[in-house]
Design a protein that fits this description.
heterodimer, A: 314 residues, mainly alpha, MetI-like fold, B: 321 residues, elongated
């Protein structure tokens, strides 16, 4: 187990390294307009040259890459240019991370609890009214782009319930809607897989044996079906983390939550290259971390997984 | 030999056993089955009433989308309309007999913009879907069959798959500058992953199954193994992927447009229209600008999702009996 975890950690580490390098090199392909705080057209060619030289983007790419890594190891993430000129990216990020973490984690927790509960409910009532209602919900959430239905939730739910339409740090009530919006997708995903795995499990022979023995339905559900269906569910955990990350970018911006997702949208709109680069790196690392944790969890849950040759023969 | 038996056994029993003559026609009859793959697929699909009715609606809607510009009295989606008397732009004109869906904030006809946008968005979806199927199957087949490539493609897959798709799309469109080609390219760059992985897993599972081994031992040619034993298992996922490519590309497009990386404003697309509507949504009288495009968009995405899933279930040979 430990050997597997270490090997997987090493693999993730290499992936992070490759992704960072790729992102850095790709960002070098960008037009240079993103490096000027003042309006680009007003500068003379000499001024442009001097500014570019002072940031160091005119150096050959390997020099830049080496400098980038040595800065990264010292915890220097570069300086914002347009968003808040000359302020280190680290200072901009520091107050924003807690918001993103708080929203992300609570959304994951809520979608886990509600999604699994909904899946169990559906499996128990298979083919009956509530199963159909929740299947309809899942189809809707999966089919309609989240960018559309979240907009309508913001528009109409705030009207009906009188919840605030924008995030306000001092009013806890304004936390409710963004968190619910963030969990909707996760709930649908968990419920869909949970229902599928439980129905698969219910059709197996040992369940029929348990019934024949005279075990009660509830006991079968809890002791056999639920426990066995949990194992493949761990597989879905990393996906849901990635889903929450993607969703948070849009929702944070929609409700103007001062988190990293909203910042990324702002940075892209204002073409602040160093800020975009750092945020992309953070989100990619988060994704890699999420998949790593998911794989480890799955290995803990299910001893049947072949630890040795995971990549090759899944 | 026969003389001996005649001596040992009573005569009546001798008539009970005769060697059957080999009859080629009779031998063929056992091998024949009236099972037809596509026939059964259609039959199972037709049982799903919701999917069939959505399919009818969708065929009608798609036909209309492409016929619409050739119908009489249709307006230009990019032309700015002005009041014939005063010459002022018809901004935010509510839905009326003249403008069925009203006009937007600069006086363009929303009705023709919605259909023009649907065409653009469907085109993106179809292009990405075709690429996803072609490239995904090729990579997946290589990945599954060629053992030397397995480790390499697995590593490559792990790297790309580890980064959230949203981030990859944002980065690519940001670097390449927003345009139609950029959007299609960015979605093509990420879309094939799931397809390739699925095809690979299926091929690895099915390749060494006993019935394939048996087929091979009996001398079935490779092309017959591929078309009869392998492909039916892949058809369901190919169809599903093609159908789901449309809702997912529309979703990505709306998202990318929201963060400012969408298509240029002079190209109407569902993403652009939803985003325009969003900017007007705070005043209740202008909400139609958000509701009309969103309604068409949701109808299209839900239909493709449901039809895709139903057809994929129907084309799975395991559901045919």
């Amino acid at each position: 187990m430990l050997r597997y975890a270490l090997r997987r950690l090493w693999q993730s580490f290499v992936t992070v390294f490759i992704v960072i390098t790729l992102v850095f090199l790709l960002m070098r392909l960008l037009p240079v307009e993103g490096y000027f705080a003042e309006s680009y057209d007003k500068l003379t060619p000499e001024q442009k040259e001097a500014i570019l030289k002072s940031i160091g983007v005119l150096d050959p790419w390997y020099v830049q890459l080496r400098r980038f890594y040595s800065d990264l190891l010292h915890g220097d993430l570069g300086t914002s240019i347009v968003y808040r000129p000359k302020v280190p990216v680290r200072e901009i990020l520091a107050p924003k991370i807690p918001y993103s973490v708080a929203f992300g984690l609570s959304a994951i927790a809520i979608s886990l609890v509600l999604g699994l509960g909904m899946g169990v409910w559906q499996a128990r009532d298979k083919g009956r009214f509530w199963d159909k209602v929740w299947t309809g919900y899942i189809v809707f959430i999966n089919a309609v782009p989240s960018a559309v239905y979240l907009l309508f939730i913001q528009l109409y739910v705030t009207q009906i319930t009188k919840l605030p339409i924008l995030f306000d740090r001092d009013r806890p009530i304004s936390w409710i809607l963004p968190i619910i919006s963030m969990s909707l997708g996760g709930i649908a995903g968990y419920a869909m897989w949970m229902r599928r795995f439980m129905v698969d499990e219910l059709n197996k022979d040992y369940i029929r044996l348990a019934r024949a023995k005279g075990m009660s339905s509830t006991a079968i559900m809890i002791k056999h079906v639920l426990r066995n269906a949990f194992v493949p569910m761990a597989q879905y955990l990393p996906t849901s983390v990635l889903l929450t990350i993607s969703g948070s970018i849009y929702i944070e911006s929609l409700y103007s939550i001062p988190g990293m997702g909203g910042l990324l949208v702002d940075a892209i709109q204002r073409q602040d290259n160093p800020l975009v680069q750092t945020l992309v790196l953070i989100y990619s690392t988060l994704g890699i971390l999420g998949l790593f944790l998911g794989d480890i969890l799955m290995a803990i849950f299910d001893p049947r997984i072949k630890l040795e040759r995971r990549g090759g023969s899944r | 030999m026969s003389n001996e038996r005649e001596i040992l056994e009573p005569v009546e029993q001798q008539d009970l056993f005769t060697f059957a003559k080999f009859d080629e026609q009779a031998a063929e009859r056992i091998g024949y089955s009236d099972y037809s793959y596509w026939g059964s697929t259609v039959r199972v699909f037709m049982k799903n009433k919701v999917a069939v009715s959505l399919l009818v609606v969708m065929i009608g809607l798609l036909a209309f989308t492409f016929i619409q510009p050739f119908l009489p009295n249709q307006k230009d989606p990019t032309k700015i309309y002005t009041d014939p008397v005063t010459g002022i732009q018809l901004r935010n004109h509510p839905p009326s007999k003249e403008f069925w869906f009203g006009t937007n904030s600069i006086g363009q006809d929303l009705w023709s913009r919605v259909w023009s946008g649907t065409r653009t968005s469907l085109l993106i979806g179809i292009l990405v879907g075709i690429w996803e199927v072609c490239f995904g199957i090729t990579v997946g087949a290589l990945w599954g069959y060629v053992r030397q490539l397995d480790a390499l493609i697995t590593e490559l897959y792990n790297i790309i798959n580890n980064v959230p798709t949203t981030i990859v799309l944002m980065l690519l469109t940001y670097i390449m500058r927003p345009s139609f080609q950029t959007m299609v390219l960015a979605m093509c760059a990420t879309g094939w992953l799931g397809m390739a992985r699925f095809v690979r897993n299926q091929i690895i599972i099915i390749r060494d199954r006993e019935y394939n081994l048996a087929s091979r031992c009996l001398g079935t040619p490779t092309y017959r193994i591929i078309t009869k034993n392998l492909l039916p298992y892949l058809v369901s996922v190919i169809v599903l992927r093609m159908a789901l490519a449309i809702p997912s590309t529309i979703g990505w497009e709306v998202f990318l447009t929201y963060i400012g990386l969408g298509l240029p404003l002079d190209t109407p697309s569902l993403g652009n229209l939803v985003n325009e509507g969003r900017q007007a949504m705070m005043s209740p009288s202008l909400r139609y600008q958000l509701i009309f495009p969103s309604a068409v968009l949701s109808l299209i995405t839900i239909s493709f999702y449901v039809i895709g899933n139903a057809f994929s279930d129907a084309s799975d040979p395991r559901n045919h009996f």
